[in-house]
Design goal:
The protein has 237 residues and is of the alpha+beta class. The chain contains six helices and eight strands, in the order ααβββαβαββββαα. It has a single domain, classed as archaeoglobus fulgidus dsm 4304 fold (2-Layer Sandwich), CATH 3.30.2170.10. β1 and β2 form a beta hairpin.
């Protein structure tokens, strides 16, 4: 498997740049997703998210490294690159992955698990950005999204920790709808790679503290959303 720095140079080997070819690549890569627990003892974990600057012409990706036990931030990395693809529903990873890989490569060490602000396998072709990142990097990943892209679920109780399976058209589970705090809008949690369905939701809930979002993606979201260059001088610590 290529290293993160190698993937930065060529994240989409063999892609001709078209939406049709991207969808075919998603179908192929989705067959390589592993949904069994195969992550190491968790010492450091990461959260990643993407924002846009200058009217969408610049993609800004953020990666935050955290201690897996205390969830204290240890390091952060921001990558800003020209946006190379317009927004196309279902093809988010082809727009955002190059910047995400650059941000991850800027961390001082490789995380044992990555939480991605986006979908894992809860995607029409089974390859959301968390799954795409997991397959090409070989790293364990979990997708934590704020809204459903595909699938349906039963009514969810209002209390913290309530969850319901997210089901595709065939009735197969592709993730979870998770109420991370009492009476807040639920999160959509799905494994990306090397994590099982049950572990994806358990690990996500274990990272929830006082906020709706789990700490890894919450901190990455804060960093990715900083548009003011003066704020870039101040870290999350």
């Amino acid at each position: 498997m290529a290293s993160l720095s190698e993937l930065v140079a060529a994240p989409f080997s063999g892609w001709d740049g078209s939406a049709a070819a991207a969808r075919e690549m998603q179908k192929h890569l989705a067959t390589q997703v592993r949904l069994e627990d195969d992550y190491p003892p968790l010492r450091v974990i990461a959260g990643v998210d993407v924002g846009f600057e200058e009217g969408g012409t610049i993609t800004r990706a953020a990666a935050v490294l955290l201690d897996a036990d205390s969830l204290e931030p240890l390091a952060e990395s921001v990558a800003r690159i020209p946006t190379s693809m317009p927004y196309v529903p279902g093809l988010l990873s082809f727009r955002e992955l190059p910047a995400l890989l650059s941000a991850l490569a800027g961390l001082p060490r490789e995380p044992d698990l990555i939480f991605v602000d986006g979908h894992g396998i809860a995607h029409p072709r089974g390859l959301g950005i968390a799954a795409h990142l997991g397959v090409v990097s070989g790293l364990p990943t979990i997708g934590v999204a704020k809204k459903i892209l595909t699938g349906s679920h039963a009514e969810l109780p209002q209390q913290r920790g309530a969850r319901a399976p997210l089901l595709d058209r065939r009735g197969s589970a592709i993730g979870w709808v998770l109420r991370s705090k009492d009476a807040v809008r639920p999160l959509i949690v799905s494994p990306g790679n090397r994590v099982s369905l049950d572990s994806a939701v358990a690990l996500t809930m274990a990272c929830v503290r006082r906020h709706r979002l789990p700490e890894p993606t919450r901190l990455a979201d804060r960093l990715a959303s900083r548009r003011d260059a003066r704020r870039d001088q101040a870290s999350l610590f």
